[in-house]
Design goal:
By secondary structure, the chain is α/β, with parallel strands linked by helices. About 25% of the residues lie in helices and about 25% in strands. It has helices spanning about 85-95, 150-155, 175-180, 200-205, 215-220, 235-250, 265-280, 295-300, 320-325, 340-345, 365-375, 390-395; strands spanning about 10-15, 20-30, 55, 110-120, 125-135, 140, 165-170, 185, 255-260, 285-290, 305-310, 310-315, 330-335, 350-355, 355-360, 380-385. The longest helix is centred in the C-terminal third of the chain and has 16 residues, at about 265-280. The protein is globular.
Amino acid sequence: MADARAGTSVVVGVQSEKGSVEKWGPIILASGVGTTCPWRGPTRSGSAREGRGEPTMSPNGSSGAALGFGVVSQGPLGARDGLIDNAMSLHDEARPQGSPDRSDQPVPLAVDLRGVHKNFGAVRAVRGVDLAVRPGEVVAFLGPNGAGKTSTIDMILGLSRPTSGHVAVYGMAPQQAVGRGLVSAVMQNGGLLKDLTVAETVAYTAHLFAVSRPVAEVLERAGIAEIAGRMVAKCSGGEQQRLRFAMALVPDPELLILDEPTQGMDVEGRRSFWRAIRHDAEQGRTIVFATHYLEEADAYADRIVLIRRGEIVADGSAAEVKSLASGRTLRATLPGADEAALRALPGADSVEVRGDTVLIHSADTDALARYLLNNTAARDLEITARGLEEAFLALTADDESTPVGAER
């Protein structure tokens, strides 16, 4: 298939019982990606996607993903009048009579990567990644710059193909899953039309889909109902990011991929955002997100996946990932501490003195605690396991130089 071009429009159809193609309206292609089509198969109960027919692409062969969330193209639309108005009636007629009921079939993995490699010339960006994400999971995808996060996400979204290996989303090729409206993405950056209001932006996005959630509902879920009438140009960075989130919710996707979703938000805005995400996850939506706020991953993810130099080095709950970084930290109050003497203690891996406070990392903090209590004036002792930040640094530390151009 030919690649879709940003700023063009295509007409998506649904194959009717009689074999004719019913038009669902032009979909604007944004960021060089493509169209949305119906989905028939296992879905979340009550989702807008239930009962949709099989998709039929337009004759121009456009393909790709309906990911124009945050980047609404201003290219030629073509005639749209009448198509959108009939979208809901087409939805009701989409499923052919007598088609099999698939509700009792097992639901495939939301994301299934097996032995995935991605090379850019001599640069090996992704090296044999295996990842299985079950429907309804909230997964944090973490790694330093250049670790291969973006390359992996691009393959899940169907924006690039693996050099080798298997990539599937809900049991099908990523392009098919995205084309059927199963996947939405909130990217870190993306242009918004500054001369529209918040509500107009969401309403405009809703008109690009044959089936969508009500605009008022989406605004409320994204926490921006109170600024519905505000011009996008006057919205803060955090408010614009929440607008992108609202746009991603419009087609009611099964899988939502978030790239630095809370960038620019204040503390309360971040908490409100994650409450909405957890509510979505409880309804069965699958969430995969990348963030530099490690406390968000710690607090909100069911699983944390750490990637280093294109390879997954940890995959588990926050507690399991933390346990992979051996040792604990002993904190004590010790006025006039002799840092050199503390470093010489058996088992002391690292020592930090901050005024009267001493921090000692060790695999045997119990023995160090006994020594300090019996032989020094130390008081207020506290022993804690290493946090996610320490585990992240320990597990993703790069002992090799990163090749030029490897930051993908």
